[in-house]
Amino acid sequence: SQQGEEDPQALSIQEGENATMNCSYKTSINNLQWYRQNSGRGLVHLILIRSNEREKHSGRLRVTLDTSKKSSSLLITASRAADTASYFCATGGSNDYKLSFGAGTTVTVRA
Amino acid sequence: DAGVIQSPRHEVTEMGQEVTLRCKPISGHNSLFWYRQTMMRGLELLIYFNNNVPIDDSGMPEDRFSAKMPNASFSTLKIQPSEPRDSAVYFCASSFGGRNEQFFGPGTRLTVL
User: Fold this and answer.
1) pLDDT over 80 (residue A94)
2) Residue A81: phi, psi to the nearest 5?
3) Using 50, 70 and 90 to split pLDDT, how confident is the model at A52?
4) CB atoms B99 and A41 under 8 Å
5) Which among A33, A41, A97 has CB closest to B98?
6) DSSP-assigned letter for residue B98
7) How far, in Å, CA of A84 to CA of A110, rounded?
8) Residue in chain B lying closest to A91 (CA)
């Protein structure tokens, strides 16, 4: 079952702009992860934020987590054409291993 | 590091045939996952192994699906007999410890005619 739900489903931006996507989930989590999938490829792990963290940075990526609202956001700053991909949030619960993936946000960065 | 290796990358078969998908996890990882991705259902976890032992196979669709992990460096997912609705991309992923980031293979695109 898909616990995480990304919003929006699709996003089109100009190169250099920032891209923000959100993820909402239903049950309590141990951690939340974001993955990227380029067309025809496997998923690539971007960042993991634990339930006791509120914000995390990695390069041009910024992730926030609000456990009271059961939501997370992923911000990509200064987007590039290579950022064109689908982005998935995945929540890890008390079962440790089991990640529930959302349906993803498709991001298109126009040159 | 070669990453997670999956074979074949593409498989086209006819309904009723047996299909075997293969996965080599990253060396040193002790958790292995099989996922299926379709447009309709998204990414679904089929089965999870920890230290070569199946821990959770609740996502396996039905008895036609089986998975094995005979050693730490190899796993197979078998579908017998295959049906057109099994057409999907099948991913294998591995991690060190179940809670951590998962490393995905390139996937096997299966088409059952």
Assistant:
1) no
2) -55, -35
3) very high
4) no
5) A97
6) T
7) 9
8) B99
Based on its alpha-carbon atoms, the radius of gyration of chain B, rounded to whole angstroms, reads 13
Judge: B50–A92 Cβ closer than 8 Å, yes or no.
no
Of all residues in chain A, the one with the smallest CA distance to B88 is A40
**What does the mean pLDDT of chain B come to?**
94
Contact state of A30 with B93 under an 8 Å Cβ cutoff: no
- Residue A106 CB neighbours (<10 A): 18
pLDDT mean over B33-50: 93
Residue A1 pLDDT class (50, 70, 90 cuts): very low
Nearest to A46 by CA among A70, A73, A8: A73
Residue B103 has its nearest CB partner, among A30, A45, A88, at A45
The pLDDT of A92-110, averaged and rounded, is 84
The predicted model gives B28-34 an average pLDDT of 94
Q: Which residue of B has its CA nearest to A92?
A: B99
Tell me how far apart the alpha carbons of residues A41 and A28 are, in angstroms, rounded to a whole number: 30
Extract long-range pairs of A66-70: CB within 8 Å, 24+ residues apart.
A67/A28, A67/A29, A69/A24, A70/A24, A70/A25, A70/A26
Write the residue in A31, A42, A101 that is nearest to B42 by C-beta: A101
Q: What are phi and psi of B74, to 5 degrees?
A: -155, 140
